[in-house]
UniProtKB/TrEMBL annotation:
Protein's UniProt name: Energy-coupling factor transporter transmembrane component T
Region (Disordered): 354-382
UniProt membrane topology term: Multi-pass membrane protein
Source organism of the structure: Janibacter alittae
A Pfam family: CbiQ
Major site of localization recorded for this protein: membrane
InterPro entries: ABC/ECF_trnsptr_transmembrane
Location of this chain's protein in the cell: Membrane
Organism classification: Bacteria, Bacillati, Actinomycetota, Actinomycetes, Micrococcales
Ranges that cross the membrane: 14-46, 58-79, 114-138, 232-252, 258-277, 298-316, 336-357
Length: 382
């Protein structure tokens, strides 16, 4: 472990780690690899999540992933392309009119097509699990404070959006506890109406409190800037976006000239960075308790990047191992490069500092406010 002192990891490091894992997962439909990736994500979340409300939302993303897999199976049975040789579920075929573009309902479900639908659903579910891990590990408020000033407005909107699920889970838990204290143990559809209205009311109150808090702290206020600065900032941002778009197309198209790929993409990134720097000068703000970037953050981000690089390396060196053979059906091979990259991605759950819990956060705040009093309190504890 790099440090045994509890502290919160920079939220940007957790998001880079999760995005790297999501990119790695997007390159494969091998069920063994997807299960390893889901296990790696779950291990890190269980090891390094705090007791904050957003940390409890990871189960919600897991349930959402399971729902996606089930929905993918249902859609395949209803309107999916029934291909393969082994019939596992004989169903009558309902032919639709010509205006339905050849889509038919039901039909005999083949094993090969059903497995392909399951693996596609597993891939999407694992990617959602990676994003849920970032949402459970990273403090959205600290993430907003770490964004450049030019991204303040859009960053606020994104942070509010990704905070909806954790806050909704916390509201449901609070309302459920209140109902139990009142002796109301109803479940199912009867309890839905009794829970829905208090949850919506609590959500509205939180939204109003958040809006008032943001307004009192000056969110959305900018310094006076000249029209020339506005034009320069807009030109840099637009030029950077165009260059990055064309450069990305050049990387994906093997027939494009060499200068249209990586060089133009790097130019776009540079122009975008200059545009962010120019736009950030119009925003004056202070950051309370800024998030440091240390060795643990570098390790966390590097583990996610290594997983993504391992996926692209496996796609080049062992492409057949990234998918399960379906014709004929055979045990899925294990891509060793990608597997090693996913195992490396579990290192943040072991080598990074543990998160501070509620009591530890309170003690650190008291220590910062009055160190002498903090020592007296600690000395009096058994």
């Amino acid at each position: 472990m790099l440090s045994s002192t509890p502290r919160a990891i920079h939220p940007g490091a957790w998001w880079l780690w999760a995005i790297g894992l999501a990119v790695a997962v997007s390159q494969t439909t091998n069920p063994l690899v997807l299960l390893i990736a889901a296990g790696a994500v779950t291990f890190v979340v269980v090891s390094r999540r705090s007791d904050s409300p957003w940390a409890r939302a990871f189960k919600l993303y897991a349930v959402l992933g399971a729902f996606i897999i089930g929905l993918r199976i249902v859609l395949h049975v209803l309107v999916g392309l029934k291909w393969g040789e082994v019939t596992v579920l004989p169903l009558p075929l309902i032919e639709l009119p010509d205006w339905a573009a050849g889509i038919n309902l039901l039909g005999d479900v083949k094993l090969e097509g059903l497995l392909a639908a399951i693996f596609e659903g597993m891939r999407l579910a694992t990617m959602i699990l990676c994003i849920g891990a970032a949402n459970a590990l990273a403090d959205p408020k600290r993430l907003l404070a770490s964004l450049p000033g030019a991204l303040q407005e859009i960053g606020t909107a994104i942070v509010v959006a990704i905070s909806v699920a954790p806050q909704l889970v916390e509201s449901v838990r609070r309302v459920h506890r209140a109902r139990l204290l009142r002796g109301d143990g109803a479940r199912g559809l009867r309890a839905f109406r009794r829970v829905a209205m208090p949850v919506l009311e609590d959500t509205l109150e939180r939204s109003m409190a958040l809006a008032a808090s943001m307004d009192s702290r000056g969110y959305g206020r900018r310094n006076a800037t000249s029209p020339a600065r506005h034009r320069v900032t807009g030109s840099l941002a637009l030029g950077g976006l165009l260059a990055m778009t064309v450069g990305s197309y050049g990387l994906l198209d093997a027939t494009s000239p060499g200068w249209l790929g990586l060089p133009l993409l790097l130019v776009g990134v540079a122009l975008g960075a200059l545009g962010l720097a120019s736009g950030s000068t119009a925003v004056t703000r202070t950051v309370y308790r800024p998030s440091p970037w240390r060795a643990a953050e570098t390790l966390t981000a590097a583990c996610g990047v290594i997983a993504a690089v391992a996926a692209f390396a496996s796609a080049s060196l062992e492409p057949a191992a990234l998918s399960m053979p379906l014709t004929p059906i055979a045990p899925p091979p294990l891509p060793w490069i990608l597997t090693v990259g996913l195992l490396v991605a579990t290192l943040p759950g072991i080598l990074t500092p543990p998160p501070p819990l509620g009591r530890q956060r309170d003690r650190s705040r008291r220590a910062g406010a009055d160190p002498v009093r903090h020592r007296e309190i600690e000395g009096s504890r058994p």
